[in-house]
C-alpha cells in the first residue's frame, strides 16, 4: 500500500534530487579550476525509502568533493617558470636587487640564490568568495528548489491521501 501511495511523492522528490545533482555537475567547474575532474565527476544521487521516510540524497563518491572551496578574492595560482623565464627574472634580480612583479621565489639559499621561481597568476575566470562549493551548489540550491516546488509536493501529497482514503 505504501509503495502505491508514494508514487507521486517519490516522483517529485526524485525530480528535485535529480535537478540538484544536474545543477551541481553543470556548475561545478564553472566555479573551480578543473585539474583531474574527480571532484565534480563523482556527484550522484539515490532514493532512500524506509517505513517512515522517503529521502532523496545527493552525494559524492569522492570524499574531497565536500571540502572544495571556490577561489576567494586573494586566491592566486603559481606555476614554475621555464629556463628562459628564470634567466630573465634572475637577470632583473641581479641588476635591481628585486624580483619582477608577478613572480615569487620558493626559498633562498644562504648565498641569496633563488630556488624555485614561480609566476603568480590570478585565477582564470571569475573570482568568487571562497565559500564551500558543496554548500553553495548542493545544499543551498536544494533548499531553494524545494521551496519553489512546494506546490508540486503538496499536490502529490493530496493525491496520495486521496488514494489512501479511497
- Counting helices, strands and paired strands, the structural category is alpha+beta
Radius of gyration: 26 Å
Tell me the fraction of residues in β-strands, as a range.
15-25%
Helix content: 40-55%
Strand count, sense and closure of the main sheet? 3 strands, antiparallel
Question: Brief description of this entry?
Answer:
The protein is an alpha+beta fold and 166 residues long. The chain contains 6 helices and 5 strands. The strands form 2 sheets. A 3-stranded antiparallel β-sheet has the order 3-5-4, covered by helices on one side. It has a two-stranded antiparallel ribbon with strand order 1-2.
Walk me through what this model shows:
There is one protein chain. The protein is an alpha+beta fold. It folds into two domains: 2-71 and 126-165; 77-121, no CATH class. The chain has six helices and five strands. Strands 3-5-4 form a three-stranded antiparallel beta sheet, with helices on one face. Strands 1-2 form a two-stranded antiparallel ribbon. The radius of gyration is 26 Å and the shape is rod-shaped.
Keywords:
three-stranded antiparallel beta sheet, 6 helices
List the helices and strands and how they pair.
Blueprint: H1 2-5, H2 7-31, H3 38-41, E1 43-49, E2 54-60, E3 77-80, H4 83-96, E4 103-108, E5 114-121, H5 133-148, H6 150-165
Antiparallel strand pairs: 1-2, 3-5, 4-5
Amino acid at each position: 500500500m505504501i509503495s502505491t501511495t508514494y508514487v507521486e511523492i517519490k516522483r517529485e522528490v526524485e525530480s528535485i534530487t535529480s535537478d540538484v545533482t544536474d545543477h551541481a555537475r553543470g556548475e561545478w567547474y564553472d566555479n573551480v579550476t578543473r585539474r583531474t575532474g574527480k571532484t565534480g565527476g563523482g556527484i550522484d544521487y539515490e532514493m532512500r525509502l524506509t517505513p517512515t521516510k522517503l529521502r532523496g540524497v545527493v552525494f559524492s563518491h569522492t570524499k574531497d568533493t565536500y571540502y572544495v572551496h571556490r577561489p576567494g578574492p586573494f586566491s592566486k595560482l603559481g606555476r614554475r617558470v621555464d629556463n628562459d623565464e628564470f634567466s630573465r627574472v634572475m637577470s632583473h634580480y641581479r641588476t635591481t636587487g628585486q624580483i619582477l612583479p608577478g613572480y615569487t621565489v620558493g626559498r633562498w639559499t644562504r648565498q641569496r640564490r633563488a630556488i624555485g621561481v614561480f609566476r603568480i597568476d590570478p585565477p582564470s575566470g571569475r573570482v568568487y568568495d571562497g565559500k564551500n562549493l558543496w554548500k553553495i551548489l548542493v545544499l543551498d540550491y536544494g533548499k531553494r528548489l524545494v521551496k519553489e516546488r512546494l506546490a508540486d509536493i503538496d499536490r502529490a501529497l493530496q493525491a496520495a491521501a486521496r488514494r489512501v482514503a479511497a
